[in-house]
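Z., the sequence and structure:
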Amino acid sequence: MAQVLANELQVKVKAYPSYISQAIAQRHPSWFTTYQPMGVDTSGNKNRYLNARHNSQLQSIITMHTHLHDFIAYLAELRRKFRAYRHKRSQEADPQPVNIPYVPSIQTDLAKLILGELPLYRFIDEFDIDQQTNQTLLGLITEYQFNEEKGDDIFFQLYFDIIFTIERFKDIGNVWQRFATDSPAEAANSPE
């Protein structure tokens, strides 16, 4: 999102999460990155290969952002429906999630776990979670102290912290790898 904003506004954009701690900064330094606009080449370079590569990279970022946006909308709708379901004390089964092309059950069940709609023991059994993963998962959930009163931004951050931190869930996170425009050293040295 920050790269898209930097490109659209043609300004540097500093990204940081809603909930900040030293542990989060150590686990995810890329969450505290300054993004530079990927502007038009003003050097007069007419190399078609470089321009095509630049356009391809921009298109990849836009595509990744679109997929991520759709998934965030799915998570937000899932949370909204569970809130309404909980408050109605309805006799119905689980609320129907929003329509989104194929979402693996582990992604939805992880959201349900965070929202308190799925007991931890069922999640562990269903997805064959080992003891160390269980402890790391509990540690992250405890760190955020997530409850119904917290905003969607904290819910999303906890969800993505889990999938980017815990090895068992990293295949979920690989879908939304960041497309870095700077090397890590350049990003670290960029002025704020």
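Residues 48-88 form the longest helix (41 residues). Residues 138 and 150 are 18 Å apart (CA to CA).

Let me know what you think.
H.
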